[in-house]
Structure formats: C-alpha cells, structure tokens
Design a protein that fits this description.
single chain; mainly alpha; 68% helix; 0% strand
C-alpha cells in the first residue's frame, strides 16, 4: 500500500513527534499562540487565589513569557535578541522620554481635578505628601517582572503590536490589541482590584500607546516606562485618595482623559487610520 504522506513535500508533512507538531502549529499561527500562552501564563494564579483567597490573581509578566516562548520557537536566538535589544533601547530622543514620564502624570492629574470638580473631596495634604513614594514605586514596577505592569509591554507592544500592524491600520490594530488586553485583566476585575470601567480605559489607552510606541522608534523600554509611571501615578497615588462612589468616578474620569488623548491621536496622527499597502 502506498503511503501518500511520503509523497507530500517535507515542509507540509505532519510531524509524528507531538513537540514537533506543537512547534509547527506555533510557527503557523504565532500571534494566536502568543495570546493563548499569555492567558495561560498569566491566569494560573487566579485558581490559587480562588482557593486561598490571597496572593495575586494574575501574573503580570505573562505577556513577556508568552512572547519569549513563541519567539524561541519561531525565530530562536535572533528573535529573542531583537526583543531584548528593544527592552534596552533608550536612544529615542529627549521629547519621547519627557512624554513617557509627563504624559501619564498629566492625564491622571486632570482626571483627579475633574473628579474633585464633580463632588469628590479634595485630597488632604497628607495624601498629597505621599508623592515621595512615586519614584521608588515606579522603579520597582519597571524592574521587577512579577509586580506592576511594565513587564506586560514586551508582549503587548514588543511582540503583538508589530505583527498586528503588518496588515492593519494602527487604529484597527489598537482596537484588536486593546480588547485582548482588556480581557486579559478579567481576574483582577472579578476580585474587585480594578473598576469595570477600566475595560474601556484599557482599549482607549491602547490607541495612545500605539501612537507613542510607533513614534518612540518602537522602544519597548519606553513603553515599559509609560506603563510603570501610569500605574504608579494613577493606581498607587491619585486613585488611592478616593473611596466608594468617588473612586468609581475617578476611574471614569480616567476614561475621559485617556479617551481625549485617543481621540486626538485618531484625529490628527498622520496615517493612523490607514492600513499598510499590500
């Protein structure tokens, strides 16, 4: 009996080794596998949290681990070196460094001003005096993979975004990535660590992040800095000043300020709504 499988070109034969078959599947759908692995790596602590009631509900460096896994299979050392180089890419221009630091501070401060204007109590001098903790907290988030959110960026911006941009406009790529990124946060929403309005915030912030990442020479380091500064100034500083309905309003004011930034990007950023030529 003729084995027709032997007549197939080597590159399309189905390997018998299960690990080889898995590697082939990852090479064929690297972006899909990145998302799947990122969820798997990130969400496993949620089961432990559900059992013990303590610890993190999500592993913040899951996207980084997902990117490393897929790159190891699809492009080996060359792909990994490119990712790590981008994580150390600091020569991008002083204005982008300034925007990475000042941008999140301005948007969070504006959200706080709006919240107070709409009825939230004015933060006390003691609360405002906690600004001395901002710098060490930001550095901890930036440097320690398992806390904060900066180590999500090698996955979201370093791996996924460039591949989404291959055939899509920056706007469409941002919306796709924003939805995936928002869903990724679900465990922390369910345990009450974040407001449900943050689902909208994440999608809108992704639009602004995409514009920044493209203009900052696709530096993953700068994306990590933006993420670390934002999580520090918004989550660990301003948002800690409010409780109850005032806290909920603060989260919606962040939606307003980041939404305004996203709207400016969509309206004025050149080519943001245009897909690349095929």
């Amino acid at each position: 009996m003729t084995d027709h499988a032997l007549d197939r070109p080597a590159e399309i034969r189905r390997p018998r080794n299960p690990f080889a078959r898995l590697a082939l599947a990852i090479r064929r759908r690297p972006l899909v596998w990145f998302f799947a692995l990122t969820y798997a790596y990130s969400w496993w602590p949620a089961a432990l949290y559900a059992y013990t009631g303590s610890g993190p509900a999500i592993l913040g460096c899951g996207p980084f681990l997902g990117a490393v896994t897929v790159l190891s299979v699809t492009s080996g050392k060359q792909g990994l070196k490119a990712l790590f180089r981008s994580m150390l890419k600091w020569r991008v221009g002083a204005r982008w460094w300034a925007l990475a630091i000042v941008g999140p501070i301005v948007l969070s401060a504006l959200a706080t001003v709006l919240n107070v204007a709409l009825g939230a109590p004015m933060p006390t001098s003691e609360e405002l005096g906690n600004w001395t903790n901002i710098v060490p907290t930001a550095f901890a988030i930036l440097l320690i993979p398992v806390i904060g959110g900066a180590w999500e960026e090698p996955g979201w911006r370093g791996f996924a975004l460039p591949r989404l941009l291959n055939e899509r406009s920056p706007l469409v790529a941002s919306l796709i990535l924003g939805v995936v990124w928002a869903i990724w946060h679900l465990p922390v929403y369910f345990i009450g660590d974040q407001q449900w309005s943050d689902l909208v915030l994440v999608v809108l912030a992704t639009v602004a992040f995409t514009w920044f990442f493209q203009n900052a020479l696709q530096s993953v380091l700068l994306a990590m800095v933006v993420h670390a500064v934002n999580n520090t100034i918004s989550g660990e500083y301003f948002s800690q000043m409010f409780e109850g309905s005032d806290s909920t309003r603060q989260s919606w004011m962040l939606v307003v300020t980041w939404g305004a930034a996203a709207a400016l990007v969509v309206r004025y950023a050149r080519g943001f709504r245009k897909a690349p030529a095929v």
